[in-house]
Amino acid sequence: MCQRLALFISLSGPYSRTPESRLSELIRGGLTTIVGILGTDGVTRSLSSLLQKTKGLERDGLTTWMWTGSYRIPIVTLTGSLQQDLLLIDKVIGAGELALSDHRSSWPSKSDLVQLLSDARVAGMLSGKLGVIHFHLGSAPTKIDLLWQILNETTIPIQHMYLTHMSSRGDDLIEEARKWIKAGGMCDFTADVNIINENATVNTLNKFRAEKLPLKQITVSSDAYGPTSPQYSPQSPASLPRTLHDDDLNDNGDLMD
């Protein structure tokens, strides 16, 4: 009986719950600005708790923001709507990370995304914020196909779509990042994970710099406290400075030059 029950138990669940951020770890990692998200867990983690966390860290001296929503739709909000969150809550800069092409996604339709992007754009206009949807990309072959369709079929500007994990999901998504940047969009790359000798972001930044792509349209984030994989501990804030100061990245001059 015990052996049969073991078939229905995994190492995910409460065991895999990642810890909250710690001020000492953030400072040790050289981070002065952080943006909080719910990520995968929009059920047992709450936006109200996240908002309080951002306020507490701000009092400690950090610059803090947050995304409303989580990986899935309908998105969770603080006030009942994305537009009200953006308009009424200073800390909220947009919605995300909304998962696309990922097994944890709710696989939103094109019309779902158009509605969210339209809401974000209008709320941004009313609040004086840009109004962004932050998309988490997985490794499914659908990649960012829906976003290209929206750009081709609507008048929603590309600036309202901010894509992350674009350097760490394989060559196909890196090629999509290249095209997205050339189209005027913003991409975020995830800092390399030292414990598994990952160097995808450093390599991609070097390639894009050699191709004279505008690096001002690329951000690099630590993905701190997000799990790197079931076998490893959560990503560390220190991964960001370690990536940006990588010798291979700076052989031809500082990245920020």
Report on the architecture of this protein.
The protein is α/β, with parallel strands linked by helices. The protein has a single domain (23-244), classed as Alpha-Beta Barrel (TIM Barrel). Helices cover 34% and strands 15% of the residues. The protein contains 9 helices and 7 strands. The protein has helices at 2-6, 23-28, 47-59, 82-88, 110-127, 145-153, 171-182, 200-210, 239-244; strands at residues 33-36, 63-68, 92-100, 132-137, 161-164, 186-190, 218-221. Helix 4 (82-88) links the parallel strand 2 and strand 3 (92-100). Helix 4 runs parallel beside helix 5. The protein is globular. InterPro entries: Metal_Hydrolase, Metallo-dep_Hydrolases_sf. Residues 248-257 have a biased composition (Acidic residues). Residues 224-238 have a biased composition (Polar residues).
Quick description:
Residues 248-257 have a biased composition (Acidic residues). By secondary structure, this protein is an alpha/beta fold.
- How are strands sequenced across the largest beta sheet? 1-2-3-4-5-6-7
What is the CATH fold-level name?
Answer: TIM Barrel
Please name the CATH architecture.
Answer: Alpha-Beta Barrel
Strand content: 5-15%
**Element-level helix/strand string:** HHEHEHEHEHEHEHEH
Shape: globular
Structural class based on helices, strands and sheet pairing: alpha/beta
Bin the helical content: 25-40%
Q: CATH first level: which class? A: Alpha Beta
What Rg is obtained from the alpha carbons, in whole angstroms?
18 Å
Gap between N and C termini, in Å?
63 Å
- In DSSP terms (H or I, runs of 4 or more residues), the helix count works out at 9
Number of strands: 7
Supply the number of structural domains.
Answer: 1
**CATH homology-level superfamily:** Metal-dependent hydrolases
Regions with little confidence, pLDDT below 50 for 5+ residues: 228-232
Mean pLDDT: 89
Largest sheet: 7 strands, parallel
Biased composition (Acidic residues): 248-257
Region (Disordered): 224-257
Biased composition (Polar residues): 224-238
Family: Belongs to the metallo-dependent hydrolases superfamily. Hydantoinase/dihydropyrimidinase family.
